[in-house]
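#structure-requests
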Amino acid sequence: DVLVRFGNKYQQDQAANSMSLFGDLGGGMGIDIQLPEMLPVPRWSAVERLNKEKNLIGIFLSAHPLDQYSVPIKYACTNLAKIGKMKDNREMKTFSVGGLVTACREGMTKKNMPFGILTLQDYSGSYEFPLFGNDYTTYRNYLKENLFVAIIVKIQERGSDWKFKPKEEDGKPKEMEVKILKMELLENVAEKLLKKLTISLQLGSIDSILTSKLLGLLGGNKGKSELFLEVHDPETSSNLKLKSRKLNVDITPQLVKELSAIQKTGVIKFWINDNKTIEQENNQDDANNETNTED
């Protein structure tokens, strides 16, 4: 508003000066135009800035709000976009999802009981999680936009955990539901979600240069995640998996970036937890036989 008023006043003064006999005195005599004083305002958070950026141009341009948690979301969580298909396929699984709360609403049911709807978004899309009964009481504090949350969920038959089971209809399969088992702030569990890093090497490609590079990279990222090395012998089609007892690692976005660059050369493969990297999923679907040997 301050800038708009200044712009209007400036244009009015310019118009007035153009009609004045002394309209050029401002530039000729060094008369400065008084700029408006900018009032101090609180700095936008990264999420708020990126949301305004998307509202203005339609996309996240400078960054993505989830980038600070990109590793646990991409490698330790199930894509939200897959949940609908998993329900349709009646895949009764327990898994983790994570992302940003982009919308939430609260209301009352027909029985005058409170409920909430939480919309979570990750890189693949978004999903709505309804909160009724005890779930609403337990997790209502997470019904706030711009929170980063991690949720452990289970796909099950609707009502399978109720005290009084719903009536079965002959010939009709039971309706499936996504049951929330636990919800936490993502910042509190991000490190725990990244349980292990596995690096796979071809027996013939191991040399001093690669060994030195990996030791330097991993040694510079010490943390709490377990480290496994898997050596593949193409002649015998066997794998030897070794667990490091001396070194645990911090699986940071920078470490993933560095390993991805080495992986593109074809000398290693890597995955986090039991999930293969995006590059591996696009190029192959190898089945690895593991021999658990501690080093």
